[in-house]
Fold each of these.
Amino acid sequence: MTSRVEDCHAAHLQQRRSERRNIHGLVLLDKPVGMTSNRALQRVKRLYSAKKAGHTGSLDPLASGLLPVCLGEATKISSYLLDADKTYETTVQLGWSTTTGDEEGDVLRSKRVPALTEERVQQALAGFEGDYDQVPPMYSAIKKSGQPLYRLARKGVEVEREKRRVRIVQCHLLHLDDNSLRLRLRCSKGTYVRVFAEDLAEALGTCGHVKALRRIAVGRFSEADMVSLAQLQNWQESGQFERLSERLVRADQALSDWPEIDLPDPLAKKIRQGNSVSCSMGQRPGLVRLYAGHQRFLGIGQVDAEGKVSPKRLFNE
């Protein structure tokens, strides 16, 4: 038989679960330095009493900035936002590299920093723009034989990693100091800024690591759209729940740069049933937002070469 304490604990957990709400949308969180992305996600989930939550690409604990947190039905688009370009501002410390590629690691090696000019740095940056092959760092969540690399790294084990092709869309020098560079970098998903910093330092004739990192944009969302955990906490504790609601971004707004197709009710019903429909709107093949009656967001559809629209990821009504 269970004890009264256990019964009370179970009842409390059940009450907590029943209090969770059907909250749907994105919170564009400004993750603070020193917090893991998962912990930040759980904080947002609790503040909104949401049943379900997910994020669209983690940030290292030492990084700050934009972490889109998807709540409820919006979790269905998280993988699509993960594909979006990311923009970072980073400070690269030249002269020594570390075991982790950032300030957290031990010094791995040191090398004299040559005299640098803005022109020399810009020239090196230009060499990285476009497609670029990176070797993922050992301190990463990539798995080898089912085990995350960072766990192997903590044991002092290093394994061979395959290069991954990423894309540097733009890279600008914001400030040049004697031994450090401040950069703004726009890149494709899967780009490790720590590895980029190491490769750039090598191209400049030295070694280096990331001293500071802040993500300032994900896709169409920028620094101006962010809200801090402290602000969310303040609104929640003071009962300003309307302010919390105002910070929720609709899922279809997050995909507003995608083309949209508005379906008449009979075709929308077929899509809801999982069927493909013919659409004579001249839409190019690819992913689209699907609506019924201009306002009701159905979800994500796929247009094929013949103009047929198939449901890809639908939202519950």
Note: The chain has three domains: 20-83+222-252, 92-218, 258-314.
Amino acid sequence: MSHRLVVVSNRVGPVNESARAGGLAVALVEALRSSGGLWFGWSGEISEAGIGEPKIEEHGPLSVATIDLSEEDNEEYYKGFANRTLWPLFHYRIDLTTYDRHNYRGYLRVNSNFAKAIFPLLSDDDLIWVHDYHLLSFGAELRRMGCTQPMGFFLHIPFPAPEVFTTLPNHEVIIRAMCAYDIIGFQTEGDRRCFVNYIVNELGGTELDDERVLAFGRTFVAAAIPIGIDTQNFEKFATSREATLHLNRMK
């Protein structure tokens, strides 16, 4: 039986254009171009109505479904909790981290609304692949709605040591939500170790072996699966006229 790949990310990137070397776009565009499937995320647009029915476009074997955000969603979920709280905290910049209860609630609300928007588009045999710190609680919301499909999550930024992560109010709520995924991927073994140490030392979870973890009554995989870059495009850009112009400016 073939399974459709469903990718969920905060933003949906350009499908018909060459993705720039590095970052989330390269990983997702190349995977989806080769396998087809569904890519779901924010359109990048702000509308008064906010999240409504997804807009669906077909690009050969790939379907792209997007939703808009309201101004409140953008401020609380994206600019607020994701980028003023999680981003600096996960990069060990506690001095830059701000916490606001409205932003936290907005983050949970938008994750829930993402789940409600995509749920009708899912098929029983889908494989769901969720990306990055914007969507930590998305999987748990889908599970509450009855989603039983295999669901993986990849964190594209570091995961901080427990001593840092526990400075976040409601940190256990975030971790409990992450444990709804069947596999959680990290960039480095150090990031994976920080996550597992939190599970074991703060929550009383169990590290079953080199990858499997038991927490909140669920067994899931926590693995170091580093992402690379498109080396051919990177090398091509390095010898391009545009790169030469940038180099000359720096000189």
Note: Residues 109 and 141 are 10 Å apart (CA to CA).
